[in-house]
Write a structure and sequence with these properties.
Layout lengths: L1 H27 L9 H4 L15 E3 L5 E3 L9 E6 L6 H13 L11 E6 L6 H15 L8 E4 L4 H11 L4 E3 L4 E5 L1 E5 L5 E6 L5 H12 L13 E2 L5 E2 L3 H31 L1
Parallel strand pairs: 3-4, 4-5
Antiparallel strand pairs: 1-2, 3-8, 6-7, 7-10, 8-9, 10-11
Helix pairs in contact: 1-7, 3-4
Length: about 270
């Protein structure tokens, strides 16, 4: 009985390893959109204190021509680079941000503004207006649409100018029909100077209040503790060493589950033999 159980467990381990290797191969195959080397290339390149190109032209939710400077005066700006067709982390990042904002003792428009800039030239003002209304509703009573803005443009040069100033690398992947880019956002001082980077998909209300206070006083962020998360597709978040980590977790989960089943089977058979 013990020999049979050991043989069964050994077979399960081998099969689990094969499955994990297959998963790793699928992530790292030539057809895969994101190789391990891309993780660092597509991470934020922070340079707090640098200024945004406030003269850059965009189109607002009403189809009007605007400049980035139109949203900077006396309050900090939360700037999110994303795209409206994203099926992965863009929506998660925005929703988590807005839900955190709904829990802070600050008023949209009076204490800060939220500006989202689309990196996808296919996004149009009507889609931007729908997104603004959606997230303004999430913000609740303080969700004044006049201080929440979703900007689009058909000019890749305009988006690149802002993305380069922020240190936000991104690229379009035709195989996925999606943009690969870091997940997160920046908080900008009223004069357009980058104050703080928030990398990842969430921030606590307390951290958000502190970050906006620093931006209002134009205190740029010091050295960053890096959390690399990239926006891919279908909700897969990839960060530093994620590919091997995914394989390791997959292997551990499969082996652990199967071994428990095998042990339970052996014990059950002993008790009923």
């Amino acid at each position: 009985m013990r020999r049979a159980a050991r043989a069964l467990i050994g077979t399960i381990v081998v099969l689990a390893g094969a499955v994990s290797l297959a998963l790793l191969a699928s992530f790292l195959s030539p057809g895969s959109a994101l190789a391990a080397s891309d993780v660092e290339d597509l991470a934020f390149r922070p340079h707090p204190g640098d200024r945004l190109p406030l003269g850059t032209a965009f189109t607002d939710e009403h189809g009007r021509s605007v400049a980035l400077r139109d949203y900077f005066d006396k309050v900090p700006v939360i700037l999110v680079l994303e795209y409206l067709r994203c099926t992965s982390l863009c929506g998660v990042t925005l929703q988590n941000l807005v839900e955190a904002l709904a829990r802070v003792p600050l008023e949209l428009g009076h204490d800060y503004r939220l500006v989202a800039v689309s990196i996808d030239p296919r996004d149009k003002p009507a889609e931007a207006a729908a997104a603004r209304d959606k997230y303004a509703d999430l913000l609740g009573p303080q969700g004044a649409a006049s201080s929440m803005h979703f900007l689009t443009t058909s000019s890749t040069a305009a988006v690149r100018a802002v993305a380069d100033a922020v240190g936000f690398p991104y690229r379009y992947d035709g195989w996925l029909d999606a943009y690969l880019h870091p997940a997160g956002f920046v908080i900008v001082a009223p004069d357009g100077a980058i104050s703080r980077y928030v990398e990842g998909i969430a921030i606590s209300p307390q951290e958000l209040v502190a970050a906006l206070a620093d931006a209002k006083q134009n205190n740029p962020q010091g050295p960053l503790s890096r959390l690399l998360i990239l926006c891919r597709v279908q909700g897969i978040a990839l960060g530093r060493l994620t590919v091997p980590v995914l394989g390791a977790f997959t292997l551990a989960n499969i082996v652990g589950g199967c071994v428990l089943i095998a042990i339970f089977t052996v014990v059950w058979r002993r008790r009923h033999s």
